[in-house]
Write a structure and sequence with these properties.
3 helices, mainly alpha, 69 residues, elongated
Length: 69
Protein backbone atom coordinates (compact mmCIF):
# COMPACT_ATOMS: atom_id res chain seq x y z
CA UNK A 1 0.00 0.00 0.00
CA UNK A 2 2.77 2.41 0.89
CA UNK A 3 4.54 1.90 -2.46
CA UNK A 4 1.29 2.58 -4.31
CA UNK A 5 1.00 5.94 -2.54
CA UNK A 6 4.66 6.73 -3.18
CA UNK A 7 4.50 6.35 -6.97
CA UNK A 8 2.33 9.41 -7.75
CA UNK A 9 4.30 11.56 -5.32
CA UNK A 10 7.61 10.47 -6.84
CA UNK A 11 6.30 11.09 -10.35
CA UNK A 12 5.21 14.63 -9.48
CA UNK A 13 8.47 15.45 -7.75
CA UNK A 14 10.60 14.07 -10.57
CA UNK A 15 8.53 15.78 -13.27
CA UNK A 16 8.81 19.19 -11.64
CA UNK A 17 12.34 19.05 -10.27
CA UNK A 18 15.11 20.29 -12.49
CA UNK A 19 18.77 19.63 -11.86
CA UNK A 20 19.40 23.24 -10.80
CA UNK A 21 16.94 22.98 -7.91
CA UNK A 22 17.78 19.47 -6.72
CA UNK A 23 19.76 20.74 -3.74
CA UNK A 24 16.77 22.80 -2.59
CA UNK A 25 14.47 19.83 -2.95
CA UNK A 26 16.79 17.64 -0.92
CA UNK A 27 17.07 20.28 1.80
CA UNK A 28 13.30 20.63 1.97
CA UNK A 29 12.79 16.87 2.02
CA UNK A 30 15.19 16.49 4.92
CA UNK A 31 13.49 19.27 6.89
CA UNK A 32 9.99 18.02 6.08
CA UNK A 33 10.89 14.42 6.82
CA UNK A 34 12.27 15.46 10.19
CA UNK A 35 9.26 17.59 11.05
CA UNK A 36 6.59 15.22 9.73
CA UNK A 37 6.49 12.92 12.76
CA UNK A 38 5.70 15.90 15.00
CA UNK A 39 2.46 16.38 13.05
CA UNK A 40 1.39 12.77 13.48
CA UNK A 41 2.57 9.21 13.36
CA UNK A 42 3.54 8.17 9.84
CA UNK A 43 3.68 11.67 8.35
CA UNK A 44 7.42 11.69 7.61
CA UNK A 45 6.91 10.81 3.94
CA UNK A 46 4.21 13.44 3.45
CA UNK A 47 6.39 16.00 5.21
CA UNK A 48 9.34 15.14 2.99
CA UNK A 49 7.25 15.51 -0.16
CA UNK A 50 5.74 18.80 0.99
CA UNK A 51 9.15 20.14 2.03
CA UNK A 52 10.63 19.22 -1.33
CA UNK A 53 7.84 20.98 -3.22
CA UNK A 54 7.93 24.08 -1.03
CA UNK A 55 11.68 24.61 -1.17
CA UNK A 56 11.78 23.79 -4.89
CA UNK A 57 9.16 26.52 -5.44
CA UNK A 58 11.20 28.95 -3.34
CA UNK A 59 14.38 28.36 -5.35
CA UNK A 60 12.47 28.55 -8.66
CA UNK A 61 11.04 31.95 -7.67
CA UNK A 62 14.49 33.12 -6.57
CA UNK A 63 16.05 32.05 -9.88
CA UNK A 64 13.26 33.69 -11.91
CA UNK A 65 13.75 36.97 -10.03
CA UNK A 66 17.49 36.84 -10.63
CA UNK A 67 17.11 36.14 -14.37
CA UNK A 68 17.45 39.33 -16.48
CA UNK A 69 14.35 40.28 -18.45
Amino acid sequence: MRSVMLLPIAALVLAGAGPAYAKGCIRGAIAGGGGGPYVGKGHALAGAAAGCVAVHHHYAKKAAAKKPA
